[in-house]
Amino acid sequence: MDTKEGTHGQSQLSHQLLKVVLLCACLLGVLLSLVQVFIEARQTSIAIDKRGQEILAMIHEPAHKALSRFDNKMAQEILNGVMEVSSVQAAAIRLEDQSLLARTERPLSHSRYRLLTDAIFTPIRTFRHSMSADSHAPSASGEVILYFDTAYEGKSFVQRSVTIVLVGLVRAITMALVLFFIYSTLLTKPLNRLIFHLTGINPEHPGKAQLPIPKGHEKNELGLWVTTANKLLHSIDKHYSLRQKAEERIMRLSQYDYLTRLPNRRSLQKHLNQLIKKANSNDSMAVICLGLDDFKSLNIQLNFNAAEHVLVKLSDRLRNHVNNATYLGRLGEDQFAIILTNVSQPYEAAELTQSLLQEFEKPFVINDEFLTVTATAGITLFPNDGDNVDKLLQQAEFAMIMAKSRNRNRYQFYIATIDSDIRQRKRLEMDLHQALENQELSLVYQPQFSCENGELVGIETLIRWHHPDRGLISPDLFIPMAEQSMDIIPIGNWVLETACHQLKQWQNSGYHGLRMAINLSAVQLQDPDIVDRVIYLLNKYQFSPDALELEVTETFIMEDIEIAKLQLNQLKSLGITLTLDDFGTGYSSLGYLKQFPFDKVKIDKSFIEGLPEHKENGAIVDAIIQIGKSFGMLVLAEGVETLEQELCLKEKGCQEGQGYYYGKPLPADAFIEHLTNLDVLPRIPGRANG
Fold first, then answer.
1. Global pTM?
2. Among 28, 114, 282, 531, which one is least packed by beta carbons within 10 Å?
3. Exposure string (b/e) for 370-404, b if CB count within 10 Å is 16 or more?
């Protein structure tokens, strides 16, 4: 079978050459024959005209006599004689006044070539000969009209043309075969022998086979070509193994991530593009971008090799968790992508994503310690969200970034507004980075009152950002940004410094007995320098530690309970007041609550809304107040806006309140003026309020 294939391969060049030569010969023969046919058609047309003129000349004399005598019978006999010529279709002798002296005709002949000959020669050719009056019959004049049917001459023309074409083709093919035989004998036979040997070369080991030099060609160009080819084959065989290994390595590096051995971004894009091209109108799929939460901190916490080990372990978990309907790859340092095909409903992508997030939560053992890694994911759907590879991957990443900005260890589907939200957020993050330097941040203060006797018991410090273009930015928006970018550390230090400075100014102005409450973010709480920072401020401004109150949000301390417990205990040891903010909105249990040294809990304003009419909120407020009292903590309610709410809280046993009912957040000067008007400021020895 191999020999037959080799023989077939050797003869392909000859066959192709023969086909080309024969085709060219046929085309040339047809072209020359067409030229001859054209000449023949021209000559036939001339012959038809000549024949018609000859017949007119033959009947001219008798027709003239019949015309001179006005002899219809004689004229008819003349025309009947003309009709003996088969090519004549009709004839007539007409007088000068257009009246017929005689006329005869017959149908056109039926010829199978008529369609062709009519196109070339026209069906009927008309020949006319005028006859003038003479001295013998001065009144007789007219003409003889002859209608010539071209089909008879056309038939002969077609037959001659076919003969011309066939003879031309035979002549051309014969000459081509002779030339091909001469060419193949001199050149193609040696080439066929070389081709036969070439087909026997193993591509993986080309140097083991040598091409023979054809006899008689040892010193000419063909012999030189064979010698050079043998050297090249030997060189190729020598370096084939090294080149193959290098190509395999390059291919793998270009398509796979070196660390996790997962397909890289380029391979993901290529695979996704192929899926999109093959997809029909009913196909759908999901692209999931999964990013690790706080991977930078993981790098800081562990050494470089341990962090890479975690990535490899996470990749193995992903690889073992997905099935054949998914395609897994690594997008970047801490990001992975999963392409899920045959998605009939979006919840299928959500279920897979949720299971992957739960898989990540399982702890690793690194350096004999348990380490937990969480992740956040963004999901985009094809074709609903887009049909472009780059767009789908970008949308999945945007959805992941938006999910991280709201909370971690969760997933979010892409929505159209995410693009603009992400761009605005990125711009805002850049502006926030310069906000402190540009003096765009400021502090406002809101009073806290006793529900029992209406006395001022505290002041909460709140931060405001006046953006030069967008105006006032909500803290709910820019504080999470600052925490994610770590700008919260310098901003938080500035807030602590400024609030303590303001408290000292008020004390120097005679307003003693004030307690300043300052919010502390989760990032600040995890900062190992926070305790030293507070000690430094207490020493710098020389006020009693119980004049300083630090508020911590419930959900923040749950992120790392051990660190939070350590930091809070150290802060408590300084003598400052610790408050648990937004109590009831997170997931703390009583078991967690008793582990921390809090002095006060704040009821979130969402539970104060609707009081006293809202029964469910009333029940929650009752429960929180009782929990606080059972742990020996003061209870403060946020968001108090009406007298009815204050009376309700007082009836339930809430000790302190804060909200617009008591006063809006105001700058320092306006804040003191507001409290002076209320006559609630602590009295200064030796002078009146204010």
1. 0.48
2. 282
3. eeebebbbbbbbbeebbeebeebbbbbbbbbbbbb
Strands 375-382 and 411-413: parallel
Report residue 216 as tokens: 């008689």
DSSP E strand stretches across 250-299: 285-292
- What the block records as the tokens of 284 is 């759908």
- Residue 326: CB partners within 8 Å, gap ≥ 6? 338, 339, 340, 341, 352
Name every residue whose Cβ is closer than 8 Å to that of residue 195 and which is 6 or more positions away in sequence: 9, 10, 13
Question: 591-627: per-residue pLDDT in tens?
Answer: 666 778 999 999 988 899 888 898 888 998 999 999 8
Torsions phi, psi of 568, nearest 5?
-65, -40
DSSP letter at 213 equals P
What are 47-61's pLDDT values in tens digits? Answer: 888 888 888 888 888
Residue 551 contacts residue 518 (beta carbons within 8 Å): yes
SS3 at position 469: coil
Q: Give the relative orientation of helices 561-572 and 530-541 as an angle to the nearest 10 degrees.
A: 20
pLDDT tens per residue, range 509-542: 888 888 999 999 888 888 889 999 999 999 999 9
Q: In angstroms, rounded to a whole number, what is the distance separating the alpha carbons of residues 496 and 494?
A: 5
**Could you give the 3-state DSSP secondary structure of residue 642?**
coil
**Residue ranges with strand state E in 69-227:** 88-95, 100-105, 124-131, 142-149
**What sign does the CA torsion over 560, 562, 563, 566 have?**
positive
Cis omega (within 30 of 0) on the bond before 447? no
For 580, the 3-state DSSP assignment is strand
Contact 80, 67 (CB under 8 A): no
Task: Let me know: does 439 contact 424? Beta carbons within 8 Å.
Answer: no
- For 118, phi then psi, to 5°, come to -65, -35
* Tokens standing for residue 304: 């470089």
Residue owning tokens 């209870």? 635
Q: Are strands 100-105 and 88-95 parallel, antiparallel or unpaired?
A: antiparallel
Q: Which of 321, 263, 318 is nearest to 291 (CA)?
A: 318
Helix, strand or coil for residue 510? coil
* pLDDT per position as a tens digit, 277-309: 888 878 889 999 999 887 776 666 667 677 788
Is residue 365 within 8 A of residue 445, CB to CB? The reply is: no
